[in-house]
Amino acid sequence: MPMYSLYMGCSVPANYPNYEASMLRVANELGMELNYMEDVACCGSPNLRAIDYLGWATVNARTLAIAEKDGHDIVTPCNGCFGSLKDVYHLLKHDEDYRKKVNSKLKEEGLEFTGSIRPRHFVEALFTDIGIEEIKKKITRPLDGVGIAIHYGCHLLRPPDVTEFNREILDELVSVTGATVVEYPIWKQCCGATVLPVDEPLAIRLARDKLKSMTEAGASFATVVCPACGNQLDLQQLGLKESYGEEYNLPILHYPQILGLAMGLDAEVLGLELNRVPAEPILKHLSG
Which of 13-17, 128-132, 240-244, 253-257 shows the lowest per-residue confidence on average (mean pLDDT)? Predict the structure, then answer.
């Protein structure tokens, strides 16, 4: 049974119990042991990074060093946390002077970053360590005929030499559920989540562009692997009624929710009732 140090970050446990519950249930079904990390702090993305780069690097190096003591790779369900941890991991692996500077601070707590474990996104661990063929064996209720658009998220894909994540990973993880991956023109575009605090009209427009592109391409549902992206594309559908007079009613599901449904897990266990845009259409499809 593969074992991991689970770094939840702030957003998922505070705001998205449906994401957390579905991830834990799917992981358990697939034999993944996720152990919650203790005494870890917020990753600081993006605010701390902007105002105190060394502080941001140190707090993430501290999380990595704690995982090193546990001896297991970190997994996280959050793109922002994944991006911060991967950025700092890459920085400290390639910049010896900066690593010494950060480790001098970590030494105060008896910690040291050596780079012996890797920070990973939960879906990458699913793909690499469990594998498509093993996941396929667990599919009991395939999502045949369901067109799903994928929003990958900025921090998952960029910069590619740091994140080391290929979009094909999510494409294959969606396809193994039996669903059809719907291609749409602006799949690389930001959802606008990080813009929201400083320019709300722009953030709403970016979300609208994504939803419009997905819908026009024929998607019945969309999936995300980031709480901020999920919130933006889910919640802003309510705002679009007011700002643009448009209704999309496009359910936004966290990937473990989609996988869990295909594995035959109950909607209640996967927290579908907590999604703002109701997911009833996919449930009707499965029961039809």
Answer: 240-244
Domain encompassing residue 167: 139-287
Specify if 26 maps to a domain.
Answer: yes
Question: Would you say residue 266 lies in a domain?
Answer: yes
The pairing of beta strand 74-76 with beta strand 119-121: parallel
- Residue 15 carries which side chain, given as an amino acid letter? N
Express as a percent the part of the chain with pLDDT over 70: 100
Residue holding tokens 């500077």? 101
Block residue for tokens 């999380």: 63
In one letter, which amino acid is 232? Answer: Q
Largest CA distance in the chain: 61
For β-strands 74-76 and 147-150, DSSP reports them as unpaired
Q: Name residue, tokens 């030499």.
A: 161
97 with 164, same domain: the answer is no
SS3 of residue 6 by DSSP: strand
What stretches of the chain adopt beta strand conformation (E)? 3-6, 33-36, 74-76, 119-121, 147-150, 180-181, 221-224, 252-254
> What's the whole-model pTM score?
0.96
pLDDT at 21: 97
Q: What is the DSSP letter of 130?
A: I
